[in-house]
Amino acid sequence: xxxxxxxxxxxxxxxxxxxxxxxxxxxxxxxxxxxxxxxxxxxxxxxxxxxxxxxxxxxxxxxxxxxxxxxxxxxxxxxxxxxxxxxxxxxxxxxxxxxxxxxxxxxxxxxxxxxxxxxxxxxxxxxxxxxxxxxxxxxxxxxxxxxxxxxxxxxxxxxxxxxxxxxxxxxxxxxxxxxxxxxxxxxxxxxxxxxxxxxxxxxxxxxxxxxxxxxxxxxxxxxxxxxxxxxxxxxxxxxxxxxxxxxxxxxxxxxxxxxxxxxxxxxxxxxxxxxxxxxxxxxxxxxxxxxxxxxxxxxxxxxxxxxxxxxxxxxxxxxxxxxxxxxxxxxxxxxxxxxxxxxxxxxxxxxxxxxxxxxxxxxxxxxxxxxxxxxxxxxxx
Length: 381
Fold this sequence. Notes:
Phosphatase 2c, domain 1, five-stranded antiparallel sheet, 381 residues, Rossmann fold, 2 domains, single chain, five-stranded parallel sheet, 9 helices
């Protein structure tokens, strides 16, 4: 089996010692590319192209472990083997403790030992890097899972008779956690309150902000705050907690009356819900889409009252559902096309939510670009 060529950077100011190292590697018939630097400054310029560094700790511009520390501090630093003199073994041990892969004593190594040391150092660094990346991936997955649980909790309905279905699908292009969130809470008077929202942007900061807003909303509802006041408080929370001035959040808040015959909804820059009865999508009363949270201070959102016919279904969703692509068209899917697709599924049967999402995803040519959340409220009568 052919041995892979290793790129070695020798950092040595002494010409005799440098010639010895090169002779030892040639003696071992090692497949290597050897580059030499005579100072630490020169080594720093050549570091990115090396897989292993043979480092003498006595250099014109650096002495002792300072040389090692400076090289290790560089991004993606390669494996480092320290070269010490016969009387400096203690320094070699200290270098290993400081992060070097190993140390070799000049005059006490032959070609095979030097080659074995280089290969061992390179493979150990690779194994350490792979282990580090694995740990980072596991921590990231655990953090993502924790944030998703905070964004997408089980509805707090207890004895409520209202049927609720929820769906969430992460965006497939960015592979980053977004800030879509939803929640539903039933109160002792029989009313059911629901929210669905979307923090602009993608990443852990946006997701954490979504969790903060969702928890704040649940607390406000349980404390008996009316929806319009809860929205104003959420606006204040967003401004206080956001990590950038331009961060805003869209939201749709719905309150279903105890008799399930009417609802009131509020829009803060969010897509309007869809009212489904049988195979029809009914027009909602003309509403004013208020500004998103975090845009205008002291803004007052206005609710819209909606009568709910028997057998109603109220579909609340984030814009990831309507921003997918359509083959052969430059425009996004949009609400009208979504309604056309939904009508087709309504005619084919009552179990339409998952097929609707599947068709929207297929039209996009694969996973949706943006995160998508759906909150479906259904008449229990």
